[in-house]
Design a protein that fits this description.
Layout lengths: L2 H20 L3 E5 L2 H10 L6 E4 L3 H5 L2 H7 L3 E2 L8 H7 L5 E4 L3 E3 L4 E5 L3 H7 L4 E7 L3 E2 L2 H19 L5 H5 L14 E5 L8 E6 L6
Parallel strand pairs: 1-10, 2-3, 2-4, 4-7, 5-8, 7-10
Antiparallel strand pairs: 5-6, 6-9
Length: about 210
């Protein structure tokens, strides 16, 4: 990545990590995807049960492949015929891998979900939640984070899944009530009551949506 962009990202990441710390969450800075992978794996003990939501960022840094190939109990929702059972198993997992729709500069996390399996697992259940977050997800404040989640992440995901929503056709949120809407639940994580549960790895790259 361009040296000037890296310098800016490093300084911004320090601010975000400081904000996360005030909210009982732990942040990490990774200068590359490989560094992010090493940090993530250092947080996951061998033999741990691991599952995930639709975390594209975890795929992009090679974390999902590493978990599948390693000494872990990976609960692979995509490989299971009973999707409900896979989703319910996530609540008792040791580690839940997630992306994030947006993160504010002072450490607030914003996520939108359709089935609620992802946001509910982030909020409660798994012993540890590890977020993989590209610097493209950082926004100045909560209002801009909500706008990013609704007008950037949601339309792209609706298009990716081939859903018939207004945002899929226009690329912008229409605050719809379409049967296909994926904006059913909004989760704002402003504090973690349980120390050492939420870990967020900031990556010096653009990841996910």
């Amino acid at each position: 990545m361009n040296e000037n962009i890296t310098k800016r990202n490093t300084l911004l990441a320090k601010k975000v990590i400081k904000g996360l710390g005030t909210r009982n969450m732990t942040g990490y800075w990774a200068e590359s995807r490989d560094d992010a992978l090493k940090i993530a794996l250092s947080l996951i003990p061998e033999g741990a049960s691991v599952t995930m939501g639709g975390a594209m960022s975890a795929h992009e840094i090679g974390l999902v492949s590493a978990i599948k190939d390693g000494n872990y109990n990976f609960i692979d929702r995509d490989a299971m015929t009973d999707k409900r059972a896979a989703m319910l198993a996530a609540y008792d997992a040791d580690v839940f891998l997630a992306g994030c729709n947006a993160v504010t500069e002072d450490g607030i996390l914003v996520n939108i979900d359709g089935n609620a399996n992802r946001v509910s697992a982030i909020a409660q259940g798994p012993k540890k939640v590890i977020f993989i977050v590209g610097m493209n997800k950082i926004t100045p404040d909560l209002d801009s984070a909500m706008k990013r989640a609704r007008n950037v992440a949601a339309p792209i995901n609706a298009q990716r899944f081939g859903l018939s929503t207004p945002c899929s056709a226009t690329g912008a949120c229409a605050d719809c009530k379409s049967p296909d809407t994926i904006c059913c639940q909004f989760l704002i994580t402003r504090f973690s009551r349980h120390k050492d549960r939420i870990h967020l790895i900031l990556v010096n790259d653009n990841l996910g949506f």
